[in-house]
Amino acid sequence: MAGREEIAVEVLGEDETYRALFDNMLNGLAYCRMLYEDDRAVDFVYLAVNQAFVSQTGLSDVIGRRASDVLPGLRETDDDLLQAYGRVAASGKPERFEHYLNVLQMWRSVSVYCPKPGHIVAIFDIITERKQAEARLNVALAEAERLRRALDHVPAYIYMKDLEHRYIYANKLTMELFGGTARDLIGKTDEDFFPASTVAKLHEVDNRVFAGALTGEEIEIPGADGHLRVYWEVKAPIFEQAGADRVWGLVGISTDITEHKELEARLEIQAHTDFLTGLPNRSYFFELAEKERARAVRYKAALSLVMIDLDHFKLINDTYGHEVGDRALREFAHVCRQTLRDPDLIGRIGGEEFAVLLPETSGWQAYEAADRLRLAIAAIRLPIERGLPVQFTASLGVASLTESDVNLDVFLNRADRALFEAKRNGRNRTCEIPEGK
Fold first, then answer.
1. Cα 163 from Cα 249, distance rounded (Å)
2. Which residues of the chain have a pLDDT value below 50?
3. Distance CA 318, CA 334 (A)
4. d(CA 137, CA 215)
5. Which helix (H) or strand (E) segment is 101 a member of?
6. How many whole angstroms separate alpha carbon 154 and alpha carbon 354?
7. Distance of alpha carbon 67 from alpha carbon 32, whole angstroms
């Protein structure tokens, strides 16, 4: 069973910053392998968790154990969670949701990603207090002075506005954000602190709250350094008195989730990217390629596909070692990016097999582009410590979209046939499957 260090490398890569995030992030994180019966998720095995997972859930010694053993009753009371995890592990599409975990009696905000088939990474916050605070909000407001003292110690931005969007209260953290005291803030509006576009968005949400709605959403606001910060913002109406329906203002609670969103973005990129070459991985390439094929069919646009196989690439690994082989793959990806156009999509399909999708490109144009790429690959000279530079060639198969290509598989099959011909005819060449064949 791999340890936490190995799992951190597998999920977050070699970068020390990402690995430090794994162990020190405030969000709980669990890396798990899903278990299925008859295509239905029935359990999962914990492969790695961070310290925040242990501290937030109170669960320890979970590595290598089934969730149903760690949390007896999980399958009976929280099957919806199992199915959500199962969907992500099977489809590769991330999901985000709030969920009440019955076996632990806590609310969680969960973001789930699939780093590789059959596995999930779940990042969560315990939001039980927030849910309870929302339910108790009107009662808590009756104890304003007592609440004021307490809120100054809460690590969130808390404030109140009247119907004219004027600030009438802000806790200590909010005043620090605005760079002033209560005297500086009270009576001011968002126009005094934010650009017009941000003010318009804040007021749009405020007006819904003034109409009686309880809101919760992400808001992007420029920070003091000019970079956008992302906040999870909950706003609730304040009524004139208990039981009344007349609103006199609102209370807002905002939490800075910028680091959480940045980590989400990094994990999403990782789920779509081949770690060695930086190119789209197989599943993501096929997802984008199918969308492009459907677009080309809809608008009757030209579209071509090139399948690439690096000739006898195993010999490089066997002769020079995998480190040189990895360098060769990275150099190949670099040459592809330099040789092809920005709109062209390159993906790593297998070990030494790649594919290129060429939008708005006819058959003869695709053939010329593919052969230019073949020559550029053959011109690669990879220096090594001893001996002559490493060289390698590639075989390329080209196919252009036709009416008979009813789906991506048919299109790929035609390009594969062209690649087979290139290899059969001696390799280091470009072959094309004519339309209609």
1. 5
2. 1-5, 8-9, 12, 141
3. 23
4. 13
5. strand 95-101
6. 52
7. 9
* CB neighbour list of residue 254: distance below 8 Å, 6 or more residues apart: 156, 157, 158, 159, 219, 231, 232, 233, 234
Q: So what's the pLDDT on residue 9?
A: 47
Instruction: Report the pLDDT value the prediction gives residue 405, as an integer from 0 to 100.
Output: 81
What pLDDT, on the 0 to 100 scale, is given for residue 240? 82
Q: At what angle do helices 258-272 and 282-299 cross, to 10 degrees?
A: 80
**What confidence score (pLDDT) does residue 87 get?**
95
Domains by residue range for the chain, with CATH: 4-126 (3.30.450.20), 131-261 (3.30.450.20), 273-432 (3.30.70.270)
- AA identity, residue 407: N
The vertex-223 CA angle with 217 and 224, nearest 5°, equals: 155
Question: Catalytic one among 233, 264, 292, 352?
Answer: 352
d(CA 342, CA 52): 41
Asked if 186 and 174 count as a contact pair (C-beta separation under 8 A), the reply is no
Is 26:123 a contact under the CB 8 Å cutoff?
no
Residue 167 near residue 189, CB atoms below 8 Å: yes
d(CA 340, CA 329): 16
Q: Which helix (H) or strand (E) segment is 13 a member of?
A: none
352 as an active site residue: the answer is yes
Question: Considering the entire predicted model, what is its pTM?
Answer: 0.47
DSSP code per residue over 387-416 = SSPB---EEEEEEE--TT--SHHHHHHHHH
The pLDDT value given to residue 385:
87
The pLDDT score that the predictor gives to residue 4 is 47
